[in-house]
Design brief:
This protein is α/β, with parallel strands linked by helices. The chain contains 15 helices and ten strands. The chain has helices spanning about 20-25, 35-45, 45-55, 70-80, 95-105, 155-160, 160-180, 190-220, 225-240, 250-260, 270-285, 295-300, 315-325, 330-335, 345-355; strands spanning about 5, 10, 30-35, 55-60, 85-90, 110-115, 125-130, 135-140, 150, 245. The chain has a six-stranded parallel β-sheet. Strand 7 and strand 8 form a beta hairpin. Helix 4 crosses helix 5 (about 95-105) and helix 11 (about 270-285) packs across helix 15 (about 345-355). The termini are far apart. The relative contact order is 0.12.
Length: about 350
Amino acid sequence: MLAIKSPQTYYHKSGIRAQVGEYIAPLAKHIAIITTSRAWEAVNPELETSLQAHNIQYRVAFLAGECSDEAIAEHTGNVKAQGAELVLGIGGGRVLDTAKGVGNLLADVAIVTFPTVAATCAAWSPITIVYNEAGGHVRSQPLTKMPVLVLVDSEVIANSDVRFLKAGIVDALAKWYEFRPYQQKNRDSLALNLKVQAARFAVETFIEFGQQAVEDNQQHKVTTALVKVIDANIAVAGMANSMRDDFPAPGVAHALHNRMTHQPELHDWLHGEKVGYGLLLQSILENNGGAPDADLLALLKQFDAPLRLPQTLGDRAETLQAMAQEVKFSAQNAARLPFTLSATTILQALEATDGHF
């Protein structure tokens, strides 16, 4: 079995915010918009002008906190009460996941995502990540409905903080390092092999164009390098996540990330930054507690991924012990890996990063 769950259409164009009405008009005349004040400012006045030019009625709701069950329920109620035919998410991962979560619950409401940063593949990914109000990971919710459109404006992303792009590069890098180990015990999975190929394409894109894209983002310039990296962060990484079969291949770095979200000291780390530290831990695990892969370490350093934990509240040894014990990863999936993943080995990897990198 091979299932590919992806958006219907991906459009990436500099200035596309001024054409949103043109793309949405054939789909709906009454839409609900979920965004944040910063993201809304980043796409306007062009986006509103375009909606108005195509006689699209819209109501804007701002996401105040995390993509939580409570937020999804609240916005779902608002969309139903509004009688909207489409929900448009504009912003970063938590906004896009909320919009996808809302649309997933409403059978007759289409979903469109418009990422304003390239920090994750949330605009494309076939899951909604649900957090509690404190920012702790609750679950990854598979979607039964995907966006009909993903609209990407490289000009908007070029004007965003470069930290988001670098975090997105590291998050996308993770796909190859996470999926590849499963091939050692399962070389016949078509879905896995396709995931690895897509993920490797992203890695090669970052090796060739990543540094230039970062410099161009810092100068707020739309260039070929930046466009390629945005596509790799959103579409290529998203596609790698979209292919599935009967043999799950959950990412170790993302599982480590999920536990890190419950650590108050790390709330200011972006998703990709937590994943990057998780990748470092995974590489130590793969090498039986030894030095991490040199190529991976160089890429993590190049894109400013954190390589050690900050000061922790309370006793550090107890904190590390709790983090290691509370990583959620099923024994069945761990058995598919070519290295030992346990509370003991995770703790050893956490301790190995202290002061070494």
